[in-house]
Specification:
Layout: H1 6-19, H2 21-39, H3 47-58, H4 63-73, E1 83-90, E2 96-103, H5 106-119, E3 123-124, E4 134-142, H6 148-158, E5 162-165, E6 171-175, H7 180-189, E7 196-203, E8 207-209, H8 211-225, E9 230-235, E10 237-239
Parallel strand pairs: 8-10
Antiparallel strand pairs: 1-2, 1-3, 2-9, 4-6, 4-7, 5-6
Length: 240
Amino acid sequence: MAGHSKWANIQHRKGRQDEKRGKLWTRVIREIIVAARHGGGDPKENPRLRLAIEKAKAVNMPLDTVKKNIDKATGNLEGVAYEEVRYEGYGIGGAAVIIDCMTDNRVRTVAEVRHVFSKYGGNLGTEGSVAFQFKHVGQLIFAPGTNEDRVMEVALEAGADDVVTHDDGSLEVLTAPHDFEAVQAALEAAGLKAEMGEVTMRAENTVELAGDDAARMQKLLDMIEDLDDTQDVFHNAVMG
């Protein structure tokens, strides 16, 4: 199901995130604003806001900044009105790509997304053109060498749907989106800390790319990530 370079792909993504700390703050702020606007400003009653606050902590965002943006979203402070929009398309070798954006100008955003696709060898598709190839799940990734039996025992007991062992030795715990927090908490309580944990769109099937095709696909993904309005990018390419 997954290629040998699953772990390498994840490490590349983490490295890219570390390079762009300022842009990460912008993304997290937008996520906080939208989550609070739709579900209210109380994290106890708003799971999406809880996850956004966890992301804020992970990038060392001050609590004052978090609170200020919750206040903006709930009407206590004046702020920009962002809306969520999703684009779907194809990358190198027909690899499927989903881009989640938050924007205050849809016309600008779609033009920028279309430009990147066309310039770097992809094609912007229509709504629904690739989404069927992905599943909305909670996902926790553990580094190669993590105790597989222990992860499996704790995760499944806490309500996880599956634990996948990849060729490179990394472990992937899959949950229903609403079970993610409980499973993550149970694993952490057992001393099992994931390298990456999120509610995401996970590809049901993968496209293996190597050599020049892999490099071109990575360039396309990096340029999409660099767009100001991009929040998340999901794809089914495994690059060797």
